[in-house]
Amino acid sequence: MAGLHKSEFTNPVINWVDSRLPIFTMMQKEYGVFPTPKNFNYFWNFGALAMVNLMIMIVTGIFLAMNYTPHVSMAFDSVERIMRDVNFGWLLRYVHANGASMFFIVTYIHIFRGLYYGSYKAPRELLWIIGVVILLLMMATAFMGYVLPWGQMSYWGATVITNLFSAIPLVGDSIVTWLWGGFSVDNPTLNRFFSLHYLLPFVLVGVVFLHVAALHVTGSNNPLGIEVKGPQDTLPFHPYYTVKDSVGMCVYLLVFAVLVFFAPDFFSAPDNYIPANPLVTPAEIVPEWYFLPFYAILRSVPNKLGGVVMMFGAIAVLFVLPWLDTSPVRSCKFRPIYRQFLFLLVISCIVLGMVGAHRPEGIWVVLGRVCTAYYFLHFLVILPILGKLERPLPLPESISRPVIAGGGGPLPGGAAAKPMEKV
Amino acid sequence: MADSMTATAPGSHGGAHAGQEVTKRDFLKLVAGAGAAVGVGAMAWPVIDSMNPSKDVLALSSIDVDLTPIQAGQAITAVWRGKPVFVRHRTPEEIKAAESVPLSQLIDPQADKARVKPGHDQWLVVVGICTHLGCVPIGNKPSDNRGEFGGWFCPCHGSQYDTSGRVRHGPAPANLAVPPYAFETDTKIKIG
């Protein structure tokens, strides 16, 4: 099959490459002229922000790895050396450490966007499921990265989390021994965590590619949650959304910079500046903030296996969310009752986060149980029933109608504009 | 994409469609696929098993613990296989408390007699790892918070153990484990 791709690029070098490997044509198609709903709000920035964040993590991580030693007797000191002696080591490490927090902030908002505007509904179920896989990979990567500095919280966090698997009946203990490569968290554990912490981000890149590929098949959802009816409802991705994403990026980088330069330890536990000691458990073990709601669910169940099952169930339920929500209407804009329940869900997640940060005593136990119950009720009971009972508000006919008063002429620069007859 | 798929689908030399005859080529594909699966599977086990404890880790090290410096009411922490082991010199009241509890009140019923060596009631040797999620409980020093049952208290999730190292208050599901050990003399034990 002789034959080159017929490239439309005029630059001879680009044309030569593009004829043989049409990556320029692909980029132009997927990111240049890609038709994107014209009514995005700033919530639609967060996917791009997450992608940028992943790149920042990979770049800083690669350079940190050049100075890190994955050995129990040297890991802590090598991190301190990065902080004190390596040129700009402090910057790399603080960007990487706070980058993890930024990544979760951005991703949680991105997930909330999906929940609020019903982005998980048909035909975007697989897109959503791939997103949940990304979340799981992120959590595993973040957890293993947190172990690497080999401070007290690193060590005991690793111990507690790996011990979760001992709750599995019959084979639990063998699995934990296998995970550790020994009889406690030790050098083999640190080595494999380092190996996997380096590997998983690249797996993430692959899964993110699938996430974006699936998105470009179905096209983006939008704040109205109705399908694009034609070219009059869309804008080319570039320059309209490259610019809008850039605005969001500036705000994101501003917040990031404030964290890195003015409060680099804002999210971290002081105990992690104590070298790991396998014989002394810190008085209070608290995971990183982004795991607190799940940690709270774990502790709210007074049974080891039950707690672990509920904690993993909190994520697992997201996989089947597209089938739990029975309402055909996507956007919360037209689901006044569901919107209130969704805000209750957000509040219960935030309260769970607070519960996870406190000792399981008194009011915190009660709050933890109430919010855990609501979390599961929301997904397993309220969503399926509400979809059938709720009367949604009338949906607009098209995206253009509410955006342009009088109902949507063609795009500027699109099909030849006919003067509008009606106002 | 969609165009190329519809273009190749009808003319594809793929496997037998429903109702069609099974050809020699289908058989060859199946055998080749199965062979590859066996090969990958055979390589998967060494890779997975390499993550299990290595021989040097497994080489079961044993340690000797001298009991003479441990005062009644106190416990020390020895390290065995990278884990803390509590060696506790129990007072007569603690022994009595441990022995007098009816088994029906226990989460993981086990008699105190089964957890100590005969004739050495005062010595309790347990792995100092909470059976919930692996924290090290507090309570070796009499001044520590030992919980309601006078044994150990886990700071992570609030489990409590009695003077026999048995769990009395959740979320831990099981008693502190008793490692293999033997008395070499009355004042020296060998763990492991």
TrEMBL record, chain A:
One Pfam family per UniProt: Cytochrome_B
Top-rank lineage group of the source organism: Bacteria
Cytochrome b/b6 C-terminal region profile domain residues: 227-397
Protein's GO biological process: respiratory electron transport chain
Membrane topology: Multi-pass membrane protein
Residues annotated as binding a ubiquinone: H216
Protein name: Cytochrome b
Binding site for heme b b566: H110, H211
GO molecular function, a single term: oxidoreductase activity
Chief location bin: membrane
Automatic annotation (TrEMBL), chain B:
Keyword Disulfide bond recorded: yes
Main location: membrane
Topology with respect to the bilayer: Single-pass membrane protein
Domain Rieske: 98-190
Superkingdom in the source lineage: Bacteria
InterPro entries reported in the protein's UniProt record: Rieske_2Fe-2S, Rieske_2Fe-2S_sf, Rieske_Fe-S_prot, Rieske_Fe-S_prot_C, TAT_signal, TAT_signal_bac_arc, Ubiq_cytC_Rdtase_Fe-S_su_TAT, Ubiquinol_cyt_c_Rdtase_Fe-S-su
Protein name as it appears in the record: Ubiquinol-cytochrome c reductase iron-sulfur subunit
Gene name tied to this protein: petA
